[in-house]
Amino acid sequence: xxxxxxxxxxxxxxxxxxxxxxxxxxxxxxxxxxxxxxxxxxxxxxxxxxxxxxxxxxxxxxxxxxxxxxxxxxxxxxxxxxxxxxxxxxxxxxxxxxxxxxxxxxxxxxxxxxxxxxxxxxxxxxxxxxxxxxxxxxxxxxxxxxxxxxxxxxxxxxxxxxxxxxxxxxxxxxxxxxxxxxxxxxxxxxxxxxxxxxxxxxxxxxxxxxxxxxxxxxxxxxxxxxxxxxxxxxxxxxxxxxxxxxxxxxxxxxxxxxxxxxxxxxxxxxxxxxxxxxxxxxxxxxxxxxxxxxxxxxxxxxxxxxxxxxxxxxxxxxxxxxxxxxxxxxxxxxxxxxxxxxxxxxxxxxxxxxxxxxxxxxxxxxxxxxxxxxxxxxxxxxxxxxxxxxxxxxxxxxxxxx
Length: 402
Fold this sequence. Notes:
The structure is a single chain. The protein is α/β, with parallel strands linked by helices. The protein has 3 domains: 5-146, Globins (Globin-like), CATH 1.10.490.10; 154-250, Translation factors (Elongation Factor Tu (Ef-tu), domain 3, Beta Barrel), CATH 2.40.30; 263-389, 3-Layer(aba) Sandwich (Rossmann fold), CATH 3.40.50.80. The protein has helices spanning 7-15, 17-35, 39-42, 48-51, 54-68, 77-89, 97-112, 118-148, 231-239, 275-283, 286-289, 307-315, 348-354, 367-379; strands at 157-166, 171-178, 192-199, 203-210, 220-225, 245-248, 265-270, 292-298, 320-325, 339-343, 360-364, 387-390. A 6-stranded antiparallel β-sheet has the order 4-3-6-1-2-5, covered by helices on one side. The protein has a 6-stranded parallel β-sheet with strand order 10-9-8-7-11-12. Strand 8 (292-298), helix 12 and strand 9 form a beta-alpha-beta unit.
């Protein structure tokens, strides 16, 4: 267990908050420049988040939140759990942490210059290793649980693409079975798989994709949206076919339904944010599903993934769906039993009118969509404890940092 930080260290860290507000992004940008100079460390990261600046921004917000909450680290528990789960998915190990320490402390000294006094550097060294030891301990617990679970494993395991299914003009599903033919670890609905991919012309890439199938012991399914100029999504759509072998780590993530699932439930999604909800719906029995409100935004009917599945559940009175088409006007025929279609995006005014304060809300989609939905729900009186949300990539929006 990590030793508590002393009063002097915590006082220095708190005093650094204004400097982090002014220079945090410069520090994390420099940190990643140093860290990614090591090819072995570089391969652990999603490089696309470096090119668009999302990863340095997300880390700057996380470091700032850590400094602000240094006297109340319980407020960071949710963020710590998300980080630990993601690290396990990417197979981050204790021996990787010293590289991060060197890069972070070196970046602080580089950016702050003479303001980075020996006392400040000592305090940040202690603060880093305090948090690192918490993460290392939690990650070890998760690794042990994965190794002990029926069908579980640690590290990368080869899986074969056994089936491709086109779900819409932008989304394709890939069903995965283990090459060794042995059982797999049953995932908890809402979890994701992490992949180590060798993309021709780009080298090693890491990605996380939510599992879109119901829990089972034989296969997983992921459903991937093609992103404009997306290195990995283009490769998956264009080059990965039945018979392709992919390297996969065990299911991870804490964006999951409780057991038993809360009722009623509202799923709010945009774009490919629906994928964890498809898994959750597949795991609910008929009685539990009847308490579900499914609200989804997509561009057009042609980009709507799993539309027939949702309409089938609605026709069986297993959920009520509201489908928003941001770039199309739905035809009257697209409405069906239990399904209401809308032109345009879901607005805060519409959501406010539909709020059920007794419901648990699960939200997944682009950061701006999640931020607006969360703000609307909180303003409408929904307790924060009843609002859960998932990140696709880096948490680069200040409103979404735990």
